[in-house]
């Protein structure tokens, strides 16, 4: 069948147009013979027809090229050409949805493989169709094989694909070189080489602040130690990155070294639970640091105790995905098709039911534990939110090749690896941009200044002797100063913020500091308390002159000074403030000082979406005439910690701190109801340590100091009010004088 072929439809279609002349007798005989043969369903080649009619084969060829009638008559009875056979065979194979190869196509067309190659050259359009069909069917088959192999949990290799397709491995290589889609399919499915695994693990360890030693790489990558050593020897860049295991440090670490390391861990993980005994007593790859734990035990440095809340966002998430109905491939594809057709309910169901894949990838691909009580819960919550975002933005990009669930797993694996690196890198950038907490922190030395074990237990339980509780922590004011201050301010004639307005302003600020952006900053992971007070001129006994004062806030907490520094840095960032550091104490946040109020408001308006929190904060102050002066700024936020390990750490003197929080402070926000009372008790206990907790003499001495400071504060506020009144009177006199001068000038002009 591969010999000389007679013309078929394609070859005779280009014959000359029909002649208007009368057909010769032999042409008429040829037409009659062909029509009779067609009625009988016969097929005969051109040579046999010539022999049957006893005419020359060249004569038939001449008639075919001259008369359309002859072409039409011969078309049904002449055998198919090789090109026509190959074309029909290709269409049949495509309908059967099998893997198309050149050999299979030749068998189906009943021609030799060489004939198929010749047809591809002679008919370029048919050749392109053949190549496209071969590549598409092969791609589909390879995809299904890879999915089946992945479902069995077995590795995908090039040799296995060749054996499964019953072709040589060189054929697979050739297909990869000629078709980028097949190349991408196979390379994405093949396991990472040892070198690629080591590179990826080294990057992960660096981002997590873990030294990339051979032992850590072996543990994380699942490779043999000898394999890692060979990779290190054969790759110079990796040899520089892989470090030697450091010698034991816990015997040489000083208290300052330990403190700096604990601070670095809080900065990295953003949770004080990272420094609990159970968290440190883990392998490095799980976020632990046993050397640091042994150093803390040797130096008798107290570590926080984890007391997680019973329910948090991560716990709720795990409950939700546990109740989610499992999604199988066929159902997922059905939902996807409906969603692509515009069915919004199908889209929402698809997104909700694929979310358990996020937890699966975090646990089985990134090897991170999803545990609500773990110090890495901030990282896990970030990865979960990123996973939901990846699914939400990527579900519509599936091209229909491969399984839909396999596609989700792939994009989640790639995206969440990048998200984890981004999380750790952002923590490092944030540390450099805001404030360094890695330097050794100054403060009271351990020894006489430290609390005894009995004092610590008494302070933690909140037990105080009656004389201290009644004498110093009473909310009653013996002289009714707040009423006297209100009377004085009201009769001064100066525009001041009244007590009622201060209460409203505090309530407005409460919404700001209980917003997720700021409340999350103050959550340390252990059960610490915090309370925020409005003090100074904006406090209960202060005189806040409208347009000429800024809000003064004090954050009182029992978290460690290391965590409080980090919280203040984040708070400054979210309120667009400036962090002013103080040696050996906690920093101060300055908001808006030296900047014109109108310019700040224009800047906020331009960046409204980015600075919603600052906009709400400024609005809470400005509507009462606070924070309008560029000289005073909008607000000042100080901090003080009464953590049991170091005593009081603050840039505010102890006596002033107690007066401002216990006497003058207006409570703005607190971690839980009653937290401000517990913190003030702890503050007083720390102040009394020199005289012994419960000492009546010590309590009396402190009470006298507080009273003296209170009197000096009230005197300073009175002086401030008198200056404001004098300035107002001077301004009024100048205005009267200017008015009189203008009136005199007008009178003179009129006269």
Structural description of this entry:
It contains 36 helices and seven strands. 60% of the residues lie in helices and 5% in strands. The longest helix is centred in the last third of the chain and has 55 residues, at 696-750. The model is unreliable at 1-20, 432-479 and 690-694 (pLDDT under 50). Strands 1, 2, 3, 4, 5, 6 and 7 form a seven-stranded mixed β-sheet that branches. Helix 10 packs across helix 11 (169-178), helix 34 (654-663) runs antiparallel to helix 35 (675-687) and helix 34 packs across helix 36 (696-750). A hairpin with a 7-residue loop joins strand 5 and strand 6. The chain is elongated, with a radius of gyration of 42 Å. The protein folds into four domains: 9-74; 82-189, no CATH class; 313-433, no CATH class; 456-717, no CATH class. With 751 residues, the protein is mainly α. 33% of the residues are buried.
Q: Please give the domain count.
A: 4
Low-confidence stretches: 1-20, 432-479, 690-694
Structural class: mainly alpha
Q: Number of helix segments? A: 36
Tell me about the largest β-sheet. Answer: 7 strands, mixed
Q: What value does the Rg take, in angstroms?
A: 42 Å
First-residue to last-residue Cα separation:
129 Å
Estimate the global geometry from the Cα principal axes: elongated
Please tell me the overall pLDDT.
75
């Amino acid at each position: 069948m591969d010999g000389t072929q007679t013309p078929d439809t394609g070859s005779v279609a280009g014959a000359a147009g029909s002649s208007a002349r009368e057909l010769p007798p032999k042409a008429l005989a040829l037409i009659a013979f062909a029509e009779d043969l067609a009625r009988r369903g016969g097929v005969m080649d051109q040579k046999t027809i010539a022999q049957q009619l006893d005419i020359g084969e060249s004569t038939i060829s001449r008639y075919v090229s001259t008369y359309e009638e002859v072409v039409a008559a011969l078309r049904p009875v002449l055998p198919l050409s090789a090109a026509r056979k190959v074309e029909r065979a290709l269409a049949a194979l495509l309908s059967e949805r099998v893997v198309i190869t050149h050999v299979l196509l030749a068998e189906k067309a009943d021609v030799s493989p060489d004939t198929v190659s010749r047809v591809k050259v002679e008919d370029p359009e048919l050749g392109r169709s053949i190549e496209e069909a071969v590549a598409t069917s092969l791609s589909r088959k390879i995809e299904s094989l890879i999915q089946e192999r992945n479902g069995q949990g077995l590795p995908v290799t090039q040799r296995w694909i060749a054996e499964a397709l019953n072709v040589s491995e060189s054929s697979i290589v050739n297909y990869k070189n000629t078709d980028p889609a097949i190349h991408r399919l196979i390379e994405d499915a093949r396991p990472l080489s040892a070198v690629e695994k080591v590179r990826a693990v080294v990057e992960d360890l660096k981002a997590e602040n873990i030294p990339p030693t051979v032992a850590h790489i072996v543990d994380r990558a699942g490779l043999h130690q000898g394999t890692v050593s060979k990779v290190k020897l054969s790759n110079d860049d990796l040899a520089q990155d892989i470090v030697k295991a450091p010698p034991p440090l816990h015997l040489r670490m000083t208290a300052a070294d330990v403190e700096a390391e604990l601070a670095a861990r809080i900065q990295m993980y953003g949770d004080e639970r990272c420094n609990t005994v159970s968290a440190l007593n883990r392998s490095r790859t799980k976020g632990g640091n046993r050397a640091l734990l042994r150093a803390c035990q040797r130096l008798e440095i107290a570590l926080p105790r984890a007391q997680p809340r019973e329910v948090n966002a991560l716990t709720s998430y795990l409950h939700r995905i546990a109740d989610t109905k499992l999604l199988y491939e066929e159902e997922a594809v059905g939902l996807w098709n409906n969603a692509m057709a515009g069915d919004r309910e199908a889209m929402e169901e698809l997104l909700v039911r694929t979310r358990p894949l996020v937890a699966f990838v975090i646990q089985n691909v990134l090897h991170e534990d999803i545990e609500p009580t773990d110090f890495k819960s901030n990282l896990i919550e970030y990865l979960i939110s990123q996973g939901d975002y990846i699914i939400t933005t990527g579900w519509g990009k599936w091209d229909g090749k491969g399984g839909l669930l396999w596609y989700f797993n792939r994009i989640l694996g790639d995206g969440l690896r990048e998200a984890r690196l981004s999380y750790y890198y952002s923590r490092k950038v944030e540390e450099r941009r805001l404030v360094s907490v890695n330097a050794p922190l100054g403060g009271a030395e351990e020894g006489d200044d430290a609390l005894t074990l009995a004092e610590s237990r008494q302070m933690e339980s909140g037990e105080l002797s009656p004389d201290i509780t009644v004498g110093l922590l009473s909310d009653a004011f013996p002289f009714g100063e707040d009423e006297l201050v209100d009377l004085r301010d009201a009769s001064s004639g100066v525009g001041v913020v009244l007590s009622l307005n201060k209460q409203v302003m505090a309530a407005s600020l409460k919404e700001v500091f209980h917003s997720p952006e700021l409340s999350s900053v103050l959550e340390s992971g252990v059960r610490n308390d915090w309370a925020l007070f409005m003090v100074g001129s904006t406090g209960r006994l202060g005189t806040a002159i409208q347009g000429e004062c800024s809000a003064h806030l004090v954050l009182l907490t029992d978290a460690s000074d290391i965590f409080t520094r980090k919280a203040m840095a984040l708070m400054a960032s979210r309120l667009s403030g400036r962090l002013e550091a103080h040696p050996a104490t906690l920093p101060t946040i300055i908001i808006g000082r030296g900047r014109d109020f109108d310019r700040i408001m224009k800047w906020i308006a331009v960046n409204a979406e980015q600075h919603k929190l600052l906009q709400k904060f400024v609005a809470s102050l400005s509507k009462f005439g606070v924070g309008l002066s560029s000289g005073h700024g909008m607000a000042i936020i100080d901090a003080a910690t009464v953590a049991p390990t170091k005593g009081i750490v603050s840039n505010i003197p102890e006596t002033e701190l107690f007066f401002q929080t216990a006497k003058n402070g207006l409570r703005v926000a607190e971690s839980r109801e009653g937290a401000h009372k517990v913190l003030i008790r702890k503050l007083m206990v720390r102040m009394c340590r020199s005289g012994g907790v419960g000492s009546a003499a010590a309590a009396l001495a402190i009470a006298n100091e507080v009273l003296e400071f209170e009197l000096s504060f009230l005197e300073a506020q009175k002086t401030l009010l008198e200056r404001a009144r004098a300035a107002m009177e001077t301004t009024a006199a100048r205005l009267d004088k200017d008015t009189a001068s203008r009136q005199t000038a007008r009178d003179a002009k009129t006269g």
